[in-house]
Write a structure and sequence with these properties.
heterodimer; A: about 400 residues; mainly alpha; Formate dehydrogenase/DMSO reductase fold; about 65% helix; B: about 300 residues; alpha+beta; Alpha-Beta Plaits; two-stranded antiparallel sheet; binds iron/sulfur cluster
């Protein structure tokens, strides 16, 4: 096994892409401001027919699913104890922490009375699926931050250097970090398992969310096994998400991709995706909903695209050894899975939702799209900052970076 | 050592498994609304309604909502489009062509149905909605956080949101004149109706009365009381001369709307056993894998 060590990346922060992203963030912020001054109705296309739009269907539902890399890699690396995957845990953890932060923020801006966001903590409704999702997500977010703390400790222990009059705090702060590090080291397994349990709970409950909409939801998607489908798809999108991220990070920091790890991950995706597909098809056969596929409309097209490009084609790709060995093949296959789950959430929450008195259908407004795009851009920018400050990305433990890396030792 | 602990572990896991299945099969799906036998309701007879829309005016007046003068409601042009209750009108009357007798169009008053097993009550994240003993389903402004899940859940697409309000948007819907009936007054719309198309009374009695009407005038009504069984029964029930679905009533089954989701939710959370069992299971797997690594020092 070769020696990989998480190291802060050293490179210029600002690139043309980064500046472009920053512009998108600013644009989103302006619409966000408008939402708080003029209300939800002024910025979004929501109305009494369509109470939820992309801020819930995309930012929250798809956001939670795409942050699933955090718990799948934690399960793989820590619980199954496959040490060779430790290199991917930190980037996945960071993505999850950032992802869930944005999920929580999106929920907040979508609430009509955002300043009451704390109400669910003291006003419980155990029958409400939304209540369960909300509580699980918030606790999981806290768990993610705790899981991230050791990385902060590792970076700053012995290196706390506050400027100016804060200097006197340097020593005590260092001590706090040391105590924290020690305590966390012994108890971390509690949080890791809790994180996986909480993820399984809310990933599936996110599916239960739309069950109560009953006949308002197109039968192609409305099924009592929605929670299972959501959980299975979240599990199968976790690794592709990690693969894609890793490939993009290596590209953007001119590192050589860790192909031996990524190929192994890739080979695990096929069986997971296969199980998901089996349940999805099985559900369709049992409920005989395939009849809806014979008519040509938005629902049938979206369903077919979701299944074909988001599940079947990437499944076939991940089954091929050649694809698993090539970075480009892995990138495309992973992207398709991500696209598929993204589309699935969008379909479940927006396309499938057809209220009985629908006068016109919903399409997101410029404002909604701007805010969502702004959030995603902001998340990418923060990810870039974080991997430059903290030891997240693993590089071979040889000299100090700046040039390209070659992988030593036997790749499997 | 490793084998020993693994066997123990499997035993525990199996035990936990039986516990989960045993418990979750016992949890009941039905929402635990304690429904009063004496809960009130309203019988809407769409064959009697003349579409004068006085109820719309009375409802707005009773709820301090902005309204034109009562004379303005004589304008029948509004019937050209199908309207829905919204944050500014809690009830509306629509008109449909009568294919048998053109002269007598069919008018249908629409408002919250005050379900016996309300989806909105089950869904609300903070429990802002509640089913009262007298049958009304009401909303508590002090709790609501404006998430609009109630709107997603309601099978009749009733709750409306003040999308234009940036500071403190409300959920608006017919509250069965909860404040009025508390004081012994009639719901405003039933009080003003000049032809008694909307009758206030004990739901049980109203259901009986409705069936009696059908029996007495079989030519006038179709043999169905809408709301008697739909989504587990509603406090407001309807009579009509033709199929309800043709009058824009939603097509609904007899099961309570929240039934399936609550069954799933309570199955997953049966006494917190499944989450705790999963926690134990993962903990066990983690421990075994760790030990295995130590003792055998190789990968699986
Ligand atoms: S009609 Fe809708 S809002 Fe009224 S009680 Fe039923 S579920 Fe609630
Ligand atoms: S909008 Fe208010 S009443 Fe409706 S579900 Fe959310 S918190 Fe409950
Ligand atoms: S019962 Fe009261 S709130 Fe409901 S429609 Fe009638 S007047 Fe309006």
């Amino acid at each position: 096994m070769e020696d990989l060590k998480p190291t802060p990346m050293k490179k210029k922060y600002f690139t043309p892409v980064v500046i472009g992203l920053a512009v998108l963030v600013l644009n989103g912020l302006m619409f966000l401001l408008a939402r708080f001054i003029f209300g939800i109705g002024a910025v979004t296309n929501l109305d009494n027919q369509h109470p939820w739009g992309i801020w819930i269907g995309l930012d929250v539902a798809a956001g939670v699913a795409l942050a699933a890399g955090g718990f799948t890699t934690a399960a793989l690396g820590h619980i199954m104890h496959k040490d060779q995957y430790h290199a991917i845990i930190r980037p996945a953890l960071l993505t999850a922490a950032l992802g869930y932060t944005f999920v929580a923020t999106s929920v907040m801006i979508d609430l009509g009375r955002y300043y009451y966001i704390w109400h669910p903590f003291i006003m419980w409704n155990g029958n409400s699926v939304l209540f369960e999702v909300g509580i699980c997500v918030i606790i999981y977010l806290a768990v993610l931050y705790i899981e991230f703390l050791p990385i902060v400790c590792e970076r700053f222990i012995g290196r706390v250097k506050l400027p100016g009059f804060l200097k006197s705090l340097n020593n005590p702060l260092d001590k706090v970090l040391r105590i924290l590090d020690k305590g966390l080291d012994k108890t971390m397994f509690i949080f890791i398992i809790a994180g996986v349990v909480l993820s399984c709970l809310h990933q599936s409950s996110l599916g239960t969310l739309m069950v109560i909409a009953g006949p308002k939801m197109h039968p192609l998607w409305q099924t009592p096994i929605l929670p299972l489908l959501f959980l299975l798809s979240a599990i199968s999108v976790g690794l592709p998400m990690v693969i894609m991220e890793s490939l993009i990070t290596s590209k953007s920091f001119s590192l050589k991709p860790e192909m031996h790890i990524l190929s192994n991950l890739g080979s695990m995706v096929a069986p997971l995706l296969g199980i998901y597909l089996a349940f999805k098809i099985g559900d369709m056969v049992i409920r005989q909903t395939f009849v809806y596929l014979t008519t040509f409309n938005a629902a049938s097209v979206m369903f077919t695209v979701e299944l074909l490009f988001g599940v079947i084609i990437p499944l076939r790709m991940f089954m091929s050894r050649q694809v698993n060995k090539s970075p480009l093949g892995l990138l495309i296959a992973s992207f398709l899975v991500i696209f598929g789950v993204f589309l699935n959430r969008l379909n479940n929450f927006l396309v499938a939702y057809t209220p009985p008195y629908e006068v016109h259908s919903y399409f997101p407004s410029i404002g909604e799209i701007s805010v969502t795009v702004g959030f995603i851009a902001f998340e990418i920018l923060l990810f870039r900052i974080a991997i430059m400050i903290f030891p997240i990305v693993s590089v071979p433990n040889t000299s100090v970076q700046r040039t390209k890396y070659s992988i030593r030792g036997g790749a499997q | 050592m490793v084998n020993q602990s693994r066997r123990d572990f499997l035993k525990t896991a199996a035990l936990a498994g039986t516990a989960i299945t045993g418990l979750s099969s016992k949890t009941k799906a039905a929402p635990k609304n304690i429904l009063s036998e004496d809960r009130m309701g309203v019988l809407v007879d769409t064959t009697v309604c003349i579409g004068c829309r006085k109820c719309e005016w009375a409802c707005k007046t009773a709820h301090d909502l902005e309204t034109p003068s009562i004379e303005a409601y004589d304008d029948r042009n509004v019937f050209k489009t199908m309207r829905r209750p919204n944050s500014k009108s809690l009830t509306v009357v629509n008109e449909y062509k009568n294919s048998v007798e053109e002269k007598f169009p069919i008018n249908v008053k629409v408002q919250c149905m005050h379900c016996d097993h309300p989806a909105c009550v089950s869904a609300c994240i903070v429990g802002a909605f509640s089913k009262q003993e007298n049958g009304s389903v009401i909303w508590d402004t002090d709790k609501c956080i404006g998430c609009r899940y109630c709107m997603v859940a309601c099978p009749f697409q009733v709750p409306a949101f003040e999308f234009e309000n940036a500071l403190k948007p409300d959920i608006k819907k017919c509250d069965f004149c909860f404040e009025r009936t508390k004081e012994g007054k009639l719901p405003a719309c039933t009080e003003i109706c000049p032809v008694e198309a909307v009758t206030y009374g004990r739901r049980e009695d109203l259901v009986k009365a409705a069936h009696q009407k059908i029996k007495n005038y079989p030519d006038r009504y179709i043999n169905r009381v809408f709301g008697e069984y739909e989504v587990g029964g509603t406090s407001w029930i309807y009579l009509a001369s033709r199929e309800f679905e043709k009058l824009d009533f939603p097509k609904l089954g007899k099961d309570p709307a929240p039934g399936v989701s609550e069954a799933i939710q309570h199955g997953v959370f049966a006494y917190f056993v499944p989450p705790v069992a999963l926690y134990a299971l993962l903990g066990g797997v983690m421990w075994i894998n760790k030990n295995k690594k130590k003792s055998e020092n190789e990968e699986i």
